[in-house]
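Page 42, continued from yesterday. The earlier attempt failed because a stray header line got pasted into the input along with the sequence. Redoing it now with the clean sequence only.
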Amino acid sequence: MRAYELHIKPIFGDMKLDKIKPSLIASWQNNLLDKLSSSRVGIIRTIFYTILDDAFRDEYITKNPISLIRGPKKEEVRLKKPFSISEINKILDFITPKMKAYFAIGFYTGMRTGEIIALKWTDIDFDKKTIDISKAIRQGVESVLKTKSSMICQHYLGHKTY
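This time it went through. Structure tokens are written below.
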């Protein structure tokens, strides 16, 4: 209901349903994309689609105008690199020796915290420079991995060994 109140009602609330045209919906959607993620706009659009579809089925309008406008494209997943290599090295220089390996594995592989905690020496192949990730620890309990891609993923150690 909040999405309706914030994003649909201010633009379309006082409009007669048969006056809502595809061009107006396209402009509204583009304005939303300027301030919200494409997935959030997709959710808001679904709410509006349902409202207009109910009006179509009840014969208040002859066509659902939102069905003529393409939904927003999914945003590309970007590789996030919060620290540069020099910043990572500076951080590692200030970490206690006992924690250095933990943080280095996280920085250089992108493994999740629970995956790192669940590692055993048998999961690491220093000859092939790979880490086999088959489990994670969450709230002290060993569990399956979070996603299917995690289940088949191998992170490369690169040129450094820890």
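Notes: Residues 85-156 form one domain.
Reminder to self: strip header lines before submitting.
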